[in-house]
Amino acid sequence: MEKILVLWFALLAWAGVASGLKVHLKDILKVNEYDRDHRPNYLGGPTKVNVSLTIHSLIVDESRQLLELSGDLIQEWRDDDIAFGGGSYRISSVQVPATANSIIKEGLWLPDLHVSRQVFPTKSGADFLRISSTGQVSWTQKVHFSFPCKLNLKSYPLRSHPCPLRLESVGYLSDEMEPEWNGDPAVDYSNVVVSHGYSIGKAEPTSKISLAPGHKTKRQLQLMIEVAPRSGWAVKHTVIPMVATVTTAYLAFFINIRGVCARVIICMLSLVTAAIFHESTYRKVPPAHDTMAIEVFTGTCLAFIFVAAVESVVVDVLGHFPTKGRQSLSPKRNSFALEPLFSQPDLTDDHASSRGQVAAIWLDRCFRVLYPAGFLAFNAVYWVVYN
Predict the structure, then answer these.
(1) Which residues contact 205 (CB under 8 A, 6 or more apart)?
(2) What is the DSSP-derived secondary structure letter of residue 338?
(3) Residue 36: which region, alpha, beta or left (left: phi > 0; alpha: psi -120 to 50)?
(4) How large is the angle between the packed helices 293-319 and 260-280, nearest 10 degrees?
(5) CA pair distance 244, 301, nearest whole angstrom
(6) Which of 54, 74, 58, 311 lies closest to 196 in space, CA to CA?
(7) Percent helix, strand, coil in the chain (nearest 5)?
(8) Residue 180: which pLDDT band, with cuts at 50, 70 and 90?
(9) Residue 183 host element (H or E)
(10) Are 219 and 178 in contact (CB under 8 A)?
(11) From CA 38, how far away is CA 80, in angstroms rounded?
(12) pTM of this prediction?
């Protein structure tokens, strides 16, 4: 019985101490005497707010041309009205989890920075207040910003896209609140997770004075995020498959000119495959007025494959061009036989002595050289211009 009584007294004592500490925390910060409607130092000039940002993730939405940024937004300022000396408690700072129902958070002045021209409202998660005895306040917020980013579609997907993030006060003017980037670095993206196929080239923080309604000015923080596509992703999923289809169509030139069916089938299969890759490239890209870099490459590959198919048909027409006193092409020859690259036509052969047949053979020989030479020349110019 005595042990139970001792335990009850211990629990009551602990509850009393905890209740006393909770009340004492509000007394230390003088929340009951504090006026949150007045910003700190409102009689002595603008309130300086130091801002830093840690980026955790960055999602690139190509179809809607949006960036979604998640991270920690840290704002620091000095508020002498909540400074405390520590007293007999010998504490240098207090920590307040700023939950939605926090009495202390609701009773203190907080900066009103928001994302300018944001597409969706800013999503704020858990946040935390740290108040030092000298009145220095640090406010950490879990934020999720969605803001527009005009992609550089003309050079898509080979060059980077500059995307500005703008932070400014909702109501305070430049002579009332001065937000500034602070820290080394002010923006940390060393451990960021970016959408597949992209990376952050650089993130450059700056500040400027922007014009507010009524010919008034606000101080605006800018963060220029350079979103760079990974070149290996585009090469692996677009360039290599398209080059493979062009090469497959090129192999049709080495099939005997009598095998027009085999030649056309190879060219048409290559053309269909290239068209599928061509269309899949634009599934996530919005319509653009300018011709995109990837569109130039895939379109040129389609043109090369189409030319190969047309050449096979033209060669077949010339090979069957009727000539008086000549026999038709011998069916005994294998239509799928491969011919040497620089073999000469046999003009003494009665089956190849017509002008049409000779022209067909020479046309085939020329395309075996001109086709790869033209494609190599196109690639040399393309990668110099766009890369």
Answers:
(1) 53, 181, 186, 187, 221, 222, 223, 224
(2) B
(3) alpha
(4) 170
(5) 10
(6) 58
(7) 40, 30, 35
(8) very high
(9) none
(10) yes
(11) 12
(12) 0.69
**Which 8-state DSSP code applies to residue 235?**
I
**Pairwise CA distance, residues 274 & 239, whole Å:** 10
Average pLDDT over residues 164-186: 89
Please state the length of the chain.
Answer: 387
The count of other CB atoms within 10 Å of the CB of residue 268 is: 16
Q: How far apart are CA 36 and CA 38, in angstroms?
A: 5
- Strand, helix or coil at 253? helix
- CA 149-153-158 angle, 5° bins: 105
Taking a C-beta distance cutoff of 8 angstroms, is the pair 114, 128 a contact?
no
| Tokens at 224, concatenated | 């220029």
d(CA 374, CA 253): 15
Amino acid letter, 46: P
CA distances from residue 283 to 129, 246, 276 in whole angstroms, order as listed = 44, 22, 11
pLDDT single digits (tens) 195-248:
877 888 888 999 888 877 767 788 889 999 998 887 666 677 788 889 999 999
For 370, the token pair is: 């001109």
- Residue owning tokens 């290239």: 274
Return the closest-CA partner of residue 227 out of 290, 149, 135.
Answer: 149
Find, among 39, 70, 36, 74, the residue nearest to 55 by Cα.
70
151: which DSSP letter? -
CA distance 367 to 364: 5
**What does the pLDDT read at residue 339?**
53
Instruction: Return the residue matching tokens 């294998």.
Output: 334
In 170-215, the DSSP E strands lie at: 177-181, 187-188, 193-194, 198-212
